[in-house]
Specification:
This protein is α+β, with helices and mostly antiparallel strands. The chain has three domains: about 1-195, no CATH class; about 205-275, Helix Hairpins (Orthogonal Bundle), CATH 1.10.287; about 275-440, Heat Shock Protein 90 (2-Layer Sandwich), CATH 3.30.565.10. It has helices at about 1-10, 15-40, 50-70, 75-95, 110-120, 120-140, 160-235, 240-265, 270-275, 280-290, 315-330, 390-400, 425-430, 435-440; strands at about 275-280, 295-305, 310-315, 335-345, 345-355, 405-410, 420-425. Strands 2-4-5-7-6 form a five-stranded mixed β-sheet. Helix 2 (about 15-40) packs antiparallel against helix 3, helix 7 (about 160-235) packs antiparallel against helix 8 and helix 11 packs antiparallel against helix 12 (about 390-400). The longest helix is centred in the middle third of the chain and has 80 residues, at about 160-235.
């Protein structure tokens, strides 16, 4: 159960690419202002061109990431580590050109490690911290002179440089550890709330079944007992062998009904697990059925099918999330909504496509953020319920990502087609949902 909950929450704890891009722009502006002030206001000798080569490299990376990926993209740990390593090495390069650890800005080496500690696994944070520590150690001995008044050289005692090295390492260790503990407590609280939600859902389901079974046993128990008693008396008073056999059959079947009621009152977890399993095609039918009577045709299209049909757990979050996407498509379609699905040995995917106006270009990269309306116009029927605050889509996206899915929002390239949403799970993750009930036991 613990591993299942950790996996379901991993997506929401990842760093947003937009956050790193904004922080890097802030660093670029600060670095540029500092270099210009030192070189042209204080008139200290400084290799300005080399400094701006490193600053430009950071700016180019920002532009590439901004144009290549949507702003709401959440980075996997390996990608986030690569970006933070670049930031650390870029800053180390600037410090090499400006005095190494004698530069008072050398304490900024701890910033990427602190960012990593808030959102990345401890092992990757430790790796990044080791790289930064190595860079700080090299900067202690190898660096250009600290920019100072022309014709003069400012020599710092080695004791001072060693103190700066110790200060950088202490800052990395203590601030990163503090940030990690605060973030970890938040993750544990989220996992605890998710576990409570799953347990309550299971208990409510069992209570509902127990209540129905008890009600059925109470309501049917008395008439079945009466039927059994009357059949027993009739069997004693009937001499005709043929009628006697019929009465005996009637009594045996009434006894069988009473046994069935007894089993209903003590449903096993095995039967519950069986009820909780949902094949992919049944899932699609369940989420599309409520939206078929609104004047919009819902077309079902089967795609590639390699291997047996995947069967997952009946996850209310997944059902709500896909249902919300289908509802939005129906709201904005002109005539047809197409739902496609496919599966193979590696993945399971569902695509929801409508023939409406599509997503507005200026907000397509921010789809899934709360209070971000995706489309402003309704369908040909005049329905505009989808142009709200965007909270429904935010909740649907969050629930689907918690189940391990990756969502892609874009406008369809086909003529006469509007918005397209692709929901894709790794096949093993989709199938692992079927064992979630077992993890709760």
């Amino acid at each position: 159960m613990k591993e299942f909950l950790a996996a379901s929450h991993s997506q929401s704890h990842r760093l947003r690419l937009n956050t790193l891009i904004r922080l890097r722009w802030l660093a670029i502006v600060g670095q540029s202002v500092t270099v210009l002030a030192v070189a042209y206001w204080l008139d200290f000798p400084l290799r300005v061109s080399f400094c701006f080569v490193l600053i430009a490299a950071s700016a180019w990376l920002n532009l590439i990431l901004a144009f290549r990926y949507p702003a709401a993209q959440r980075l996997p740990p390996a990608a986030a580590l690569g970006i933070l390593l670049f930031d650390s090495l870029q800053l180390a390069g600037l410090l090499y050109l400006t005095g190494g650890l004698t530069n008072p800005f050398s304490l900024l080496l701890s910033v990427p490690v602190v960012i990593s500690a808030t959102s990345m696994p401890l092992k990757l944070t430790a790796l990044l911290g080791g790289v930064v520590t190595m860079a700080a150690t090299l900067l202690t001995f190898f660096h250009e002179p600290l920019p100072w008044v022309a014709g003069e050289t400012l020599e710092m005692p080695f004791v001072y440089v060693a103190g700066m090295w110790l200060a950088v390492l202490s800052s990395i260790a203590f601030t990163a550890l503090y940030a990690f503990r605060v973030a970890e407590e938040g993750r544990l609280l989220a996992d605890a709330l998710a576990a409570t939600e799953l347990v309550l859902q299971r208990e409510q389901h069992l209570s509902a079944l127990d209540g129905l079974a008890a009600a059925a046993a109470h309501e049917l128990g008395t008439p079945l007992a009466t039927i059994s008693l009357v059949a027993r008396e009739m069997e004693r008073g009937v001499d005709d062998p043929k009628l006697k056999d019929d009465v005996a059959l009637l009594r045996s079947q009434s006894e069988r009904c009473r046994e069935i009621l007894k089993r209903l009152t003590s449903l096993s977890s095995d039967s519950e697990a069986h009820m909780a399993r949902l094949p992919l095609t049944s899932l699609i039918e369940e989420v599309t059925a409520p939206h078929r009577d609104f004047g919009i045709t819902i077309k079902m299209v089967e795609g590639e099918r390699i291997g047996p049909e995947p069967v997952g757990r009946r996850n209310p979050g997944v059902i709500y999330g896909i249902g919300n996407l289908v509802e939005n498509a129906v709201d904005f379609a002109r005539q047809v909504v197409t739902v496609r699905w496919r599966w193979d040995a590696d993945s399971v995917a569902i695509t929801v496509l409508d023939d409406g106006e599509g997503f507005a270009p200026e907000i397509i990269d921010r789809i899934g953020e709360p209070y971000m309306s995706t489309r402003q116009e309704g369908n040909a029927k005049g329905n505009s319920s989808g142009g709200g605050l965007g909270l429904g889509l935010f909740i649907a996206k969050t629930l689907l990502e918690r189940s391990g899915a990756t969502l892609t929002f874009r406008n369809a390239s086909g003529r006469g087609e509007g918005a397209m949403v692709i929901i894709e799970w790794p096949r093993d993750r989709f199938l692992s949902e079927a064992s979630a009930m077992a993890a709760l036991q």
